Amino acid sequence: MKLKRATYHLWTFTASKMISAFGAQIYAFAISFYILQLTGSATSFAANLICSILPRTLMAPFAGYVADTYSRKRIVILAQIVSTIAIIGLLIISLTNGLSLPAIYATTVVLSLASTFSGIAFTSSITGLVDEERIQKAMSLNQMSVSFAAIGSPAVGGLLYGAVSMPVFLILYASASILAVVLESTMDFNLFAKRQVKEEGTPKEKMFDSMKAGLAYARLQPLLMAVIWVALLVNFLFGAVQVGYSFILIEKLKILPAHFGLIEGGMAVGILLMSIYLAARKSFSSPLSVSKWGIASMGLSMGLIAVPLLFSLPYGGIFTFYLTLSFVSGALGPLVNTPIQVFMMKRIDDDYKGRVFSILETMAMALMPLGMVLFGFLYDVLPAPWILISSSALLILTVFILLRASVIRQVTGANPEERLDTAST
């Protein structure tokens, strides 16, 4: 009976994620165009991005505490309802007074906060929703739904933007959000959960004490800390690609906009196909080994971006080279992320998942702008091939040090049912 319920969760979770992601992507597409058309200012556009990133960075630790202290199902549903109310509020403003930048920015902040609490609570609940054997499948289906949204939403958004008004976009997003709430309300978040049940009357741990306990738990697990540092350093070093990729293709190599769009699409297709493959196959026996070689391959692909800058190639050859590289890089993403996520899901105690994932998200979000600023400066003062090849070598060296054979053996040599010790041991 439990397995049937878990199967229902698997597909309901995927549908909910796909619906909400598709609505959010179309909304983001429309709002971005609207801001640029309204103001013609890149600063106004950047301010909306800051309204999305900054609240996530600041509130992620609190979201982790809430996810580990209160009902995760209630958090997910409440956050989705708040998102729906925010969109309906913006819709009412657009119909009565017309859209304004302050209203858009305020809505973006609310949506970012709701997404932070919902995302961390949902991620922490995966092991409670599905059986352990299908955690990899759940994570892959989640990635697949996000990929579908990333591929389809620009096309749908582009078609709709010229044909319908902004209130129609808001109605579509609100409808998608309401449908997600309905689906999430039918799920049992405690089906396989192993959270400690506290006796009635037991005082709740204070927020900052709880957050410190989550940090202490992570710090006392050398294996877990190695994985966290790998994730953070990969995120940081890929700033070299995030900053330099478009600059190299458009400014240095003069790739046409239509061809650049196809190259970007190649990455989304690679992500989608690899996600489908991972969802269909059984779980990896050594997830960290898979991620280790996947990251090394990503490091190699980062260095290969510099090849057309070092060797003369015809335009057709450059386009084909980057299209292939983009597809391969996209496919490597889920091959790296999914095994690491599965490892962390299985190894982190249920009572600490929210806080550990929030620590990871906070540090990652903080490192992203730092990496972009650093590599933005480096691209102005150093040749692009040097930056890419150096970052590639550093990434490969980092993963082979942090995920060396002795570290991998701590996982493969242990009983997969064993949990990491808690912070109190």
Structural class: mainly alpha
Helical element count? 17
Mean pLDDT: 81
Provide the CATH superfamily of the largest domain: MFS general substrate transporter like domains
Low-confidence stretches are 414-425
Strand content: under 5%
Q: Which CATH architecture of the largest domain would you pick?
A: Up-down Bundle
Subcellular location: Cell membrane
Protein name: MFS transporter
Keywords: Cell membrane, Membrane, Transmembrane, Transmembrane helix, Transport
InterPro entries: MFS, MFS_trans_sf
What report would you give on this structure?
The chain has 425 residues and is mainly α. The chain folds into two domains: 2-185, MFS general substrate transporter like domains (Growth Hormone, Chain: A, Up-down Bundle), CATH 1.20.1250.20; 207-412, MFS general substrate transporter like domains (Growth Hormone, Chain: A), CATH 1.20.1250.20. Helix content is 81%, strand content 0%. It has 17 helices and no strands. The longest helix is centred in the first third of the chain and has 38 residues, at 2-39. The two termini are 36 Å apart.
